[in-house]
């Protein structure tokens, strides 16, 4: 870690060893780092919310995991030169996810520009423009001045009329 390499990754299965727990490895690296580097824990299972995963979730998670490992392997082959890894480009730290119905890798530097870190949400969400229409469909008593109207691509003025109630 004293060299040019600035990041490392430890992958661990929860059943790999009864004594080498995530907390043990974190404490070990934190203690031995002595200010040269810092450590963080990210247990992927803790990110999952909403109960037991469905077969779709398990299948999708497996597919994303395979794509992530293949991507990491390709990146390591690209940046490996003379026994050293030079992972200092913007796309060396990415997040995998869906972007317009396609699984894509997004560099963290790009995500930083479009993320609301305080609320841990994207700054712009496409579905927010549909709130007014959803309230109308649910027969809420609403004030049109409370909402910011948005441009909806699939609805035109000829087919949507607030005055006529659609």
UniProtKB/TrEMBL annotation:
Query: Known catalysed reaction(s)?
Result: beta-D-fructose 6-phosphate + ATP = beta-D-fructose 1,6-bisphosphate + ADP + H(+)
| Keywords (A to Z) from UniProt | Kinase, Magnesium, Metal-binding, Transferase
Q: To which species is this protein native?
A: Dromas ardeola
Q: Which SUPFAM superfamilies match?
A: Phosphofructokinase
PROSITE patterns under this entry?
A: PHOSPHOFRUCTOKINASE
Name the record gives this protein = PFKAL protein
Top-level division of the source organism's lineage = Eukaryota
Classification from the root reads: Eukaryota, Metazoa, Chordata, Craniata, Vertebrata
What are its GO cellular component terms?
Answer: 6-phosphofructokinase complex; membrane
Phosphofructokinase domain location is 7-71
Q: Which stretches are annotated as coiled coil?
A: none
């Amino acid at each position: 870690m004293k060299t040019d390499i600035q990041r490392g990754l430890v992958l661990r299965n929860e059943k790999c060893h009864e004594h080498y727990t995530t907390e043990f490895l974190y404490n070990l690296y934190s203690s031995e780092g002595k200010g040269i580097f810092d450590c963080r824990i990210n247990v992927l299972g803790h990110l999952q919310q909403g109960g037991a995963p469905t077969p779709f979730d398990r299948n999708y998670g497996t597919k994303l995991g395979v794509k992530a490992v293949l991507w990491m392997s390709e990146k390591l082959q690209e940046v490996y030169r003379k026994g050293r890894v030079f992972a200092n480009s913007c796309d060396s730290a990415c997040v995998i996810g869906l972007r317009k119905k396609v699984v894509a890798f997004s560099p963290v530097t790009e995500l930083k520009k479009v993320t609301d870190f305080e609320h841990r949400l994207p700054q712009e969400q496409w579905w927010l423009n549909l709130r007014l229409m959803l309230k109308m469909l649910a027969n809420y008593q609403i004030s049109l001045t409370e909402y910011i109207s948005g441009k909806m691509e699939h609805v035109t003025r000829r087919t949507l009329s607030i005055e006529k109630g659609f």
